[in-house]
Amino acid sequence: MAIESLYNLIPAYGQDLVRNMTVLLEETILTEQQRWGMFLSGAHAIGVGEVIRQIEAAAPLSAEAVTAAKAASAIMGMNNVYYRALHLMHNREYADLRSGLRMNILMNPGVDKVDFELWCLGVSAINGCGLCLDSHEKVLRSHGVTAEQVQAALRIAATVNAISAVVRAENHYK
């Protein structure tokens, strides 16, 4: 499996992360595209080049799905900052104003809407935007996505975040 080159970047103290990723890649609660797209969108959200390259090389995703995973990371990178700020600010006046931010990708992401929403949810978890998490979870649940499937996306986001942190930290020693 091509993902083993990523595993080789993780030292002994991070082997729980390797095991978690292995388990998550083998679970069938999400489709293969949903799983790999979540790993890829999460890696892009965090921005550790080596992790992005290894996941993208291993991911059995179509070109459209790769682009959509990257787009989920990009659009949530913007939205998570904006909507997290609105959520944290005490002055509610800003919540009533039009954001004026372009978000056309949300209407036609190039993959199934549920897949894209899962990736947006995971990236929102990585970026810490509670308002976006609630919004995407509500959309997912309205499309019949189960709590277990939402949890699987969150577990992937948490795992790719931790793997990226370890690789980033270890690269400081090189």
Number of helices: 8
Number of E strands: 0
* Integer tally of domains: 1
* CATH topology assignment: AhpD-like
CATH superfamily: AhpD-like
Helical percentage: 55-70%
Distance between the termini: 26 Å
Spans where pLDDT lies below 50 across 5 or more residues:
none
SSE order, one letter for each helix or strand: HHHHHHHH
* Biggest sheet architecture: none
CATH architecture: Up-down Bundle
Apparent shape: globular
Structural class: mainly alpha
CATH class: Mainly Alpha
Percent range for β-strand residues: under 5%
Mean pLDDT: 94
Structure description:
- The protein is mainly α and about 170 residues long.
- It has one domain: AhpD-like.
- Helix 3 packs antiparallel against helix 4, helix 3 crosses helix 5 and helix 3 packs across helix 8.
- The longest helix has 26 residues.
- The two termini are about 25 Å apart.
- The model has no long low-confidence stretch (mean pLDDT about 95).
Task: Describe this structure in a few short sentences.
It contains 8 helices and no strands. By secondary structure, it is mainly alpha-helical.
List its salient traits.
single chain, 174 residues, mainly alpha, AhpD-like, 69% helix, disulfide bond, AhpD, hydroperoxide reductase activity, Alkyl hydroperoxide reductase AhpD
